Amino acid sequence: MGGWFRTAQAGESVLPSKAWGPPDDSSFGLVSSADDVSAAAEALRDRPTMILTGAGTSTASGLADYRGRGAIPRAPMTYQEFVSSDDSRRHYWARSVVGWPSFRAARPNAVHHQVASLATVLPVTGVVTQNVDGLHQAAGSGPVLDLHGRLSTVTCLSCGTVVDREALQRSLLELNPGVAARLDHLAEQAASLPDGDAEVDRTEDFVYADCPVCGGMLKPDVVYFGENASKEVVTAAFDLLDASDGLLVLGSSLTVMSGLRFVRRASRESKPIVIINDGATRGDELATHRLHGQLEDVLTQLIAALAGPTLN
Known about the structure:
- This protein starts with 33 loop residues before the first helix and ends in a 5-residue tail after the last helix.
- It has helices at 34-44, 79-84, 86-105, 110-117, 135-139, 165-175, 177-189, 231-242, 257-268, 295-307; strands at residues 49-53, 124-129, 144-146, 149-156, 162-164, 218-222, 246-250, 273-276, 289-291.
- The strands form two sheets. A six-stranded parallel sheet has the order 3-2-1-7-8-9, with helices on both faces. A three-stranded antiparallel sheet has the order 5-4-6.
- Helix 1 packs across helix 10 (295-307) and helix 3 crosses helix 7 (177-189).
- Strand 2 (124-129), helix 5 and strand 3 (144-146) form a beta-alpha-beta unit.
- It is of the alpha/beta class and 312 residues long.
């Protein structure tokens, strides 16, 4: 394999997980007409609306997604792998140390700011995001529910102690001076796969930290594949949807059920559903209005339509 870092190629992985990548999808690159955008705006106009966002909202901030056009095939670690295998934890934390600088450096992009500005033209009840980067909050949206947690904190699975991820980074670099000495170079190579998705070889000697209070297992405070989202957060998200008369989905393929379930409930309750994504989603057949194109471009049109006079 050569070197500390490599980018996973299609069909291969350091760990035995199914690789994710862009689907064979001819809907990439489609662009909806101005009339379609205007019709979607009319469907949501003056309606209390919940916004559900996915990884596509953060790609312009340098945070790669799993299913978008051009996504690099990779195999995210599962919860079962992490908790059951010392080797898997070594591998995860080695990847995380290398990828953290790129993740930490990410800043809100135009889409995050557009989502925040939607509240000026639409009665937004809240933003439910599948992302773990905190960029909606940084852009001024609120309230925001982090459906899959936040990568900025780490939790002990034994005693519940919460550790700041930046502080843990310093500890991990102290424990692994060889990685620390090469971090700038390794982080540059890992920029396309930030944090725990960065592929790093030769991790058998990597030393990871235990809980500073009880010596228990530390895990990033995010929902892994194979793990359930917090019941409290899911309940709060459904409460937002119940308080809404519409649902706007942005930048999500809705591949996992944690996001799709909100679309399904909105459909059962006959609430208008507007989905904006470049590429197909699992919720397309349930959408009242399905808009295609780059998020920033479509949102520019949608905000303008909502700010303007009605079509009637």
